[in-house]
Fold this protein.
Amino acid sequence: MSVQEGLPLEAHARPQLRVHRADHLLVADMVETGSKVLDVGCGEGDLMQLLESRGVDCRGIELSREGVNRCVARGLAVVQGDADTDLDHYVDDAFDYVILSQTLQATRQPKEVLENLLRIGRRAIVSFPNFGYINMRLQLLIHGQMPRTDNLPATWYDTPNIHFCTIKDFVGLCDEIGVKMERAVALDRYGRPLRLNAPWWFWNMFGEQGVFLLSRAQKKPPLQAADYVAP
Amino acid sequence: MMNIHSVKGQKIAAGERTQEVDHPHSLVAQFGADQPLPLDCGIELSPFQIAYQTYGTLNADKSNAILVCHALTMDQHIANVHPITGKPGGWLTLVGPGKPIDTDRYFVICSNVIGGCMGSTGPASINPATGKAWGLDFPVITIPDMVRAQAMLIDRLGIDKLFCVVGGSMGGMQVLQWSVAFPERVFSALAIACATRHSAQNIAFHELGRQAVMADPDWQHGRYFEHGCFPHRGLAVARMAAHITYLSDAALHRKFGRKMQDRELPTFSFDADFQVESYLRYQGSSFVERFDANSYLYLTRAMDYFDIAADHDGVLAAAFRGTQTRFCVVSFTSDWLFPTSESRAIVHALNAGGARVSFAEIVTDKGHDAFLLDEPEFIDIARAFLQSAGTARGLGKAEH
């Protein structure tokens, strides 16, 4: 795996009205001012509002009606929709960045969703809770029960999260579908980035969540008829 | 046969046209022979007039104008007492001082649609060629025709770009048509409980209403004014049928259930034993006092013909490609006339066109009529959308 570049989590220069989540600040720092962004699963629009305050042109999709109505009431351009079905209606290259913040594990078809993100956007930023986090492992190992943390408090029977994965799993998926990983950051439970030169297993053990900046891999040229050799 | 009794308001004597048709209690813009209205059917309508109401004050750079497009059986009197019924304005939940469409802040315009009967030229107006009411000689009108006429009115008012175009149902269709036909003249658009095309079920309901009107012997092939009569039975039935589609099963059950009307036991007759029957009869009878039967035929027809995609080789997204307009689309869960799926189709097309769009579905059991009623969540969203669009447009506080 290539060495990931770090990015200092410097506090934003402008005074903020609210305290932003560490992963939101990290994601926002990956996006240039003036770019066009789609936030898939935007919740109540906290990340969108942060991005808009930095001069980013944002659109959002949110499944929950309450979330959408809150967003619209905040003046954000958000539509009620489902990442699993509604992304198909967006045209190729419509956005500079498509963000999937803490939503991947709640989709029915994470692989298709990820492919869709990189069709619609030139780049994708994906953050998700790491199920390989040490606390998770210990709860399952010691208590023999499905893990629950402050970040993921839902019980196993009413959680929207149906496709948990570990950082290692996600890296594997990116390799499988040929996605280029431009940056990767693992955050600890306090939202601080883990050491950048740490090995993957360390991130997978001590990162509570992963944040990845992805872009399309160079597509192989399509097979020409002349290349085809009959067996 | 059902008896329609006037409950209140001024009863229209049979065969009389209300004075609102020619000399409305509204502002009127006249368009002479030098300014004909080109219609989709190929005819030019000339001369014609548009009756309209305005509220609030136009600012110096004319950037605070909101055009409200009224629904099928509404009219331009959205925020003032209705000249015929004496009832308060038709959209006071949304329009007025301090309301989302704030008349202290915006200059609000609402015009009677072409084909209507409250002062804009329509089938009840006098055909200058014959000196009699147009009746069925009036050319068939489409939603794009209505919008073209509105654009001429907006030109007349010297307004280049509207801050927002707002409407629900047939008004929502006009909002979409505005944003497609004049994208550079619409800064923002609020389309409520509508669709980009009229569904087969809705066309079917409209046909039912039209047939009810035409089946009334007093309709006289549309020449009832000349015969001194009015198809009030047929029009009332049309209204009753339509009114059911504006509500929902849950709302009817909540409002009326199976409750009896001023009686304990059934009368074993065909009187209005049930409250819901009495209510529908009232809806029918009050409607015929303020609406022209032929107008009802023309306006329902305009909605039936509406199909934005058809004008763009069947590709809806092509209609909105590259639009700079800020959209907000709203639907209601219990609306079975314009269900959420219709609004979602609008949103998908706007997304594909890269438009800036918000979309919310409001949970309510009030059916299609919810857009005219006090739905706090809807009102909040309309307010927030206009607020943020106003900020983007650089509109400060009201200029008075």
Remarks:
- The longest strand of chain A covers residues 121-129.
